[in-house]
Amino acid sequence: KPNTSFVSNVDAALGRRNLSKSDKVFLICRSGDRSAKAVNVLAGHGYTNVWSVYDGFEGDLSKEGRRSVNGWKNSDLPWSYKLDRSKFLMEFAPAN
After folding, report:
1. What would the pLDDT profile of 27-68 be if each residue is shown by its tens digit?
2. pTM value?
3. What are the start-end ranges of the H helices in 1-96?
4. Residue 95: pLDDT band by 50, 70, 90 thresholds?
5. 8 φ, ψ to 5°?
6. Helix (H), strand (E), coil (C) string for 46-67
């Protein structure tokens, strides 16, 4: 179900950090599909420097049905289960 408050939530989160629609915004989801769609939504609302992490965090499914093919985690990029939430701009499901 699309989050009808997605753009206004992002606007508010940026405002709290004195950022604007021209500042860099990076989005990530599990496979990269939802974050890519969310980038398009934000771009349609005037965001000019918004990016999706290609292949997402876990990436595509393997033939065995596991997310072990690509993505941030499977590319040996830094990650941890211990998250510093103070570095997050916001957390919520994006608009589809």
Report:
1. 988 888 999 999 999 999 999 999 999 888 888 889 999 988
2. 0.77
3. 6-16, 33-44, 71-74
4. very low
5. -65, -35
6. CCCCEEECCCCCCCCCCCCCCC
> CA-CA distances (angstroms) from residue 77 to 21, 56, 58, 65, 80?
27, 12, 11, 22, 10
Torsion (CA) 55, 56, 59, 65 in degrees, nearest 10:
-130
Instruction: Return the amino acid letter for 4.
Output: T
Where does residue 18 rank: exposed (0-12), middle (13-18), buried (19+ CB within 10 A)? exposed
Q: Interhelix angle for 33-44 vs 6-16, to 10°?
A: 80
